[in-house]
Amino acid sequence: MGQRPNVLTPDQSPQHRLGYMIRELREARGMSMRDLAAKTFVSHSKVQRWENGDRPPKERSEVELIDQAVGAGGFLIELWQEIDRGVTGARHVSDPALHVSDTSPDLATALSRAAASDSEGIFVPRRLDDGTVVLVALDRRALLRAGVGIGAAAVAGLPAPAAAVVSPAEDPFGFARTASESWSGLRLSRPVPDFGVDWQALLPGGRSMLGSQLSLQVHPARREGSRVVVSIPDQRRAEEFLSRPHRSLLVGAVNTEGISKFFALDGRAARGKLARNGGVYEVAAPAAYELDDLTYGILWAVSNYDDALQADDQALSETRSDLKAYERLSSSAVSREAAPGLNGVAHMWLGSDFCARHILKALPELPELPAFWTREQRGEEASAWLIFDHKFPYLRETTKALGGASTRAFCIPEEVVRSSPRYERILLFLAVALMESLGIHAQFTSDPAYESVEGFVVAPDREAVIANWVRGEGMWHVDVTARSSVVRDFTIAARDVDADSLTAAPTAAGRLRALAQYLDLPWAWLIQRCGQLARYGSSGLIQSRSRLVSAAGIDAACAYVASLPADH
């Protein structure tokens, strides 16, 4: 075995301590860096940065995945929290007996959780007399027999766990535990009586999203090549569940060597697919529908947008008709009070739809090839390009009207990237990929000074079209202007980003690869997962109900990403 690429000193800093423990636990499990990268959906180089202490995980959800992958029982989460708190100094487990009283409160909490959990054991550090730190495997049953982590004295004064513990009987496949650990905003509840529903899932909202609810049934499943076969022991219960009009998911749990993976199928797509195999009914789903940050992001965005638009369907249609008078004006700024009964997503759709039609009307009159500027920063906003029914056609029409390639600039500061969960960053990436697939060259700046710039289309130094519905005071603000001060500011902004784009590259693949790196997304994994999903389409994963929602943009973006080279 070759020498390790670096020598960490756990006493040096919380970052080094965390990196050291990640590496030791990984190797104790017999995992390579690439194994850990695959389990946590990151690149091999990112695992290296974790372990050398250079760049620790930025998000709790990320360190939770690492903790779960190496079986640390929550210990790595406690170490990671030290970094945020700025804790310094070493923590030594010097007593060979490994009493909880000899450890830090954080480690005591970790041991308590491990002992009370369903796992068989936990690795903890122990310092030998010569100063070497080794890992000791503590069996769960041994901990319980010794009273470690379960006695009142062991946990006196320690805060109670933040989340309620779900018993193995209530969560036989580990779905609730895995889903809750993977997506912190997701809320799961077990209805009593269940009336055929294993779990009610409340998907979080956002700045405009309201949140959405799904009903789930979870069943055992097996992997057969590129598909997953879900076994349904109670056909009647499943048929009643799938026949209800509310949004539902059928989830298959595949357990391989103690590791569970979950695969989702839209309840409507599953209807009529129940087939008898011996004494058991089965439903087949593509393995591409594995629940991870890609598919969860799609479920989150489509469910939120679809439910909100469907809820206001009639009122939204009437309001759109009432607001048609504004189309005759070259300039208008319409407040949300013009549609007081509509929810935030309906306001978004109205603003987006009006701005798209405003630009298409003004575009032929511009004196030269324009540059576009858009205000989307997060997956919530950017997913509108993938999901709203008018957005993909709008992109195609603008490309056709211009007769060639164009540019579209974004301002996404580093703080926005850091505060966005991975599934939202994936949605942003897919929205940009959709644009690149149509010959639109995406450009990016991280300079927060540009955050307040409105959405615009500018013919440099000549004329500008203002069209903004994202993070504005009203539903939209549109204008067509040749005012020199306005046109000059837009021209400077567009040229600044063009000259110094974070993703500058001569090809779409190069620009998207640079964007993936900036968003901290693993390039090869994106191509692989998008390719799997593109082969089957997203409609089987989740089907929209609103006529204002379409999966065409999602499927086109995934197909395009899948066509890109995966090599470096």
Please tag this protein with its features.
8-stranded mixed sheet, globular, 568 residues, 18% strand, alpha+beta, 17 strands
Structure description:
The protein has helices at residues 14-28, 33-40, 44-51, 60-70, 75-85, 105-116, 140-146, 152-155, 175-182, 235-243, 267-270, 293-311, 313-322, 344-362, 379-387, 391-402, 414-419, 422-437, 484-499, 508-518, 523-536, 552-562; strands spanning 121-127, 133-139, 187-189, 199-203, 212-224, 227-232, 248-256, 259-266, 275-277, 280-286, 332-334, 371-373, 406-411, 440-445, 456-459, 463-468, 476-481. The chain is α+β, with helices and mostly antiparallel strands and 568 residues long. Strands 3, 4, 5, 6, 7, 8, 9 and 10 form an eight-stranded mixed beta sheet that branches. A seven-stranded mixed beta sheet has the order 11-17-16-15-12-13-14, with helices on both faces. It has a two-stranded antiparallel ribbon with strand order 1-2. Strand 15 (456-459) and strand 16 form a beta hairpin. The longest helix has 19 residues, at 293-311. 45% of the residues are buried.
Q: In summary, what is this structure?
A:
The protein is an alpha+beta fold. The protein is 42% helix and 18% strand. The protein has helices at residues 14-28, 33-40, 44-51, 60-70, 75-85, 105-116, 140-146, 152-155, 175-182, 235-243, 267-270, 293-311, 313-322, 344-362, 379-387, 391-402, 414-419, 422-437, 484-499, 508-518, 523-536, 552-562; strands spanning 121-127, 133-139, 187-189, 199-203, 212-224, 227-232, 248-256, 259-266, 275-277, 280-286, 332-334, 371-373, 406-411, 440-445, 456-459, 463-468, 476-481.
